[in-house]
Design brief:
It comes from Roseomonas alba. Helix content is 5%, strand content 42%. By secondary structure, the chain is mainly beta. Among the domains are: 41 residues, no CATH class; 191 residues; 57 residues, no CATH class; 38 residues, no CATH class.
Length: 646
């Protein structure tokens, strides 16, 4: 047979696999005729070609059950080691299950037109219940994918106040794959339940849109990082009021049970009970979840944590909890974030919560901690019943709940509702480390001024690195310097009921130091240390000085004021039965009275013993002539002429 002239080859009526066929390679003068069998030619042309469901009998007319043809294609691909299964721009009705078992297959559609009904592109139509349309299972199914496909379910109930969706199973079940199955550019039109993933980590969902009625995505036992991004749930199928309001009571967009380290980003949900629901299973709860951007609208709870020990971080989140077509009224019992479990740990950097009927954040469990770095709450406490923006359950037994703020919260339109509820042992605070005087834990203005904690029972303030105030849990306060070198100290005894009140005054007023408390009569002590004196100054000079002459002060001076018509009094008080009163001028000075000096009055018979009043002068009322005054010489009382009084 010639290698260059096809015309010399013998003619044949029909080609068999063993027949030799001419193949010309090259062109012009360099053309060369080669020989090959038909089988070899077919193998070369069809090698690695994608599978197509029409090759296995799929019709795509929206009426015929194409599931058996799709399963036949899957089985053939299983024998061939997997590959790409293509779907044309048709409607494929599914009325029986399709199982991908231990083989990696990519379901590749031709795209779709978003809408409430089947349209251009590749659509799966589901009209009967009682089966799972697609199941991926077994370790060999890792790497499978669903791409560029839309799915629609029919729901025949009348759209009125009693409406409920038809109870379809999940469209996709990823079960025991132990690894990646991917969904990319998938559309759900009126789907009851979307994607279930169990014991299959590394689930990847990117570009999921549509309307779901009961559950959009549910994941359990995902022990390796999953990724969900670019999700947009909106009333594509129907925006009927009764349908969307049913969703607001019963639909959970994304449910996570035991899920480790999942990444979620660019999420939008319109009309649901919860956007992210963190539940539990026998395997545990979600740990270390990460959310980039989240926006929920017409949702009862944007973040709902039911399980215990859930931990995660959210970068940006915005929620609104209005009744759909309700004129702006909030959903009954709505909360932007609701925690019913215990010991959750959430870190949220930018959070806005709008239209919560009572509390924007409600924490019902115990031991929960939320760190909020920027919080804005609008239109809470719409019942006007005093509900707080943040409600922390009182924990009678266990660890109280706590919210730490990285910045002051911005509250608006809350009908004067408080920031946090009263009657709880939980707390909301701005947290800071203990620090020290030169580098306080909470800095104000500069790095060496602010608040710090010298010990677990004390808090202190510093200015320019110097301690200026310290207060202890025992009620001791020091001011004006480090404790021990301070200028003023305050000590509060246990069960204190009496106190000192220092009051300033307006212009022309008089500042005061006064005692206050529950007792009817409260004294005020001014005490100097050791033998120090108490001095009162005025006009820059000492006006009065009180001094105790060492040892135990048994006797002391008392000054009593008097009401109108009465007589003020200066008297000696103390433990001695008899105590004298002495007026002592300085140096050669004398004691002067600016008015007549009134003497004590006695009769001759009532004069006291002269021995106790040496050099004392008294007035004798029953004396005669010039015998009206008596002076004691220490032995007798004598008249001015020296005679003994008798």
């Amino acid at each position: 047979m010639s290698d260059s002239k096809i015309s010399l080859l013998p003619a044949i009526a029909a080609a068999a696999d063993s027949d030799v066929l001419p193949i010309v390679q090259g062109s012009g003068g360099s053309a060369v005729t080669r020989r090959t069998t038909l089988a070899q030619l077919r193998s070369g042309i069809l090698a690695d070609r994608a599978y197509h469901v029409r090759d296995f009998g799929a019709v795509g007319d929206g009426v015929t059950n194409d599931a058996p043809a799709i399963q036949a294609a899957v089985d053939a691909m299983n024998a061939a080691g997997g590959g790409v299964l293509e779907f044309g721009a048709r409607v494929y009705r599914l009325a029986s299950p399709i199982v991908v078992d231990s083989v990696s297959i990519i379901f590749q559609g031709a795209g779709f037109t978003e809408g409430s009904n089947t349209a251009d592109g590749t659509w799966f139509s589901i009209t009967t219940t009682g089966f799972t349309p697609f199941t991926f299972t077994g370790g060999g199914a890792r790497g499978s994918a669903v791409r560029d496909i839309a799915i629609r379910q029919t729901h025949g109930a009348a759209q009125d106040a009693s409406w409920a969706p038809t109870d379809y199973d999940f469209v996709f079940r990823v079960q025991d794959c132990l690894g990646l199955v991917e969904f990319r550019n998938v559309f759900f039109a009126s789907i009851n339940r979307g994607i279930w993933c169990d014991n299959s980590g590394r689930l990847n969902i990117e570009g999921l849109r549509g309307q779901v009625f009961t559950t959009g995505i549910e994941i359990d036992r995902a022990y390796d990082t999953c990724r969900i991004q670019h999700v947009h749930f909106w009333p594509f199928g129907t925006a009927d009021d009764d349908v969307v309001r049913w969703q607001q009571q019963y639909c959970d967009a994304i449910v996570m049970r035991r899920v480790d380290g999942i990444f979620l980003d660019d999420l939008f949900v319109f009309g649901a009970r919860s956007m992210l629901r963190f539940a539990s299973s026998a395997s545990g709860t979600t740990k270390k979840f990460y959310v980039g951007n989240l926006y929920s609208d017409f949702v009862l709870y944007s973040i709902w944590i039911e399980g215990n020990n859930v931990t995660g971080q959210i970068a940006n989140a915005t929620t609104q909890s209005e009744i759909y077509s309700g004129g702006g009224q909030p959903l009954a019992g709505s909360n932007g974030i609701r925690i019913d479990g215990n010991n959750a740990r959430l870190q949220i950097s930018n959070l806005r919560l709008d239209d919560s009927q009572s509390n924007a954040i409600r924490v019902n469990g115990s031991g929960n901690r939320i760190d909020l770095f920027s919080l804005r709450v609008e239109y809470y406490n719409t019942l006007n019943d005093g509900s707080a923006a943040i409600h922390l359950a009182n924990v009678a037994s266990g660890t109280p709940n706590v919210v730490y703020l990285g910045s002051p919260a911005l509250l608006g339109n809350g009908n004067s509702g408080p920031f946090v509820n009263s009657g709880t042992n939980g707390y909301v605070s701005l947290g800071a480390p203990a620090g020290r005087s030169d580098r306080p834990g909470l800095q104000v203005g500069v790095d060496n001024s602010g608040l710090f904690a010298p010990s677990a029972t004390e808090v202190a303030a510093s200015a320019a690195g110097i301690e200026v105030l310290r207060a202890s849990s025992s009620g001791v306060i020091s001011l004006g310097g480090a404790s021990g070198a301070h200028g003023l100290g305050i000590t509060t005894p246990a069960n204190s009921v009496n106190r000192v009140l220092i009051s300033s005054a307006a212009a022309s007023g008089v500042p005061s130091i006064a005692t206050q408390g529950t007792d009817t009569n409260i004294a005020l002590n001014l005490a100097a240390k050791g033998t120090g004196t108490v001095r009162l100054w005025t006009q820059g000079q000492v006006a009065f000085e009180a001094y105790s002459a060492g040892g135990l002060p048994r006797n002391y001076l008392r000054a009593d004021a008097a009401a109108a018509g009465g007589t003020p009094r200066l008297s000696v008080q103390g433990l001695d039965t008899d105590a004298h009163l002495q007026l002592t001028p300085k140096g050669a000075g004398y004691v002067e009275s600016t008015a007549p000096l009134r003497l004590a009055t006695y009769t001759v018979s009532t004069l006291p013993s002269a021995a106790g009043f040496a050099r004392c002068l008294v007035f004798v009322s029953d004396g005669t002539s010039n015998k009206r005054f008596a002076v004691s010489d220490g032995t007798n009382w004598r008249w001015p002429d020296g005679a003994v009084v008798s």
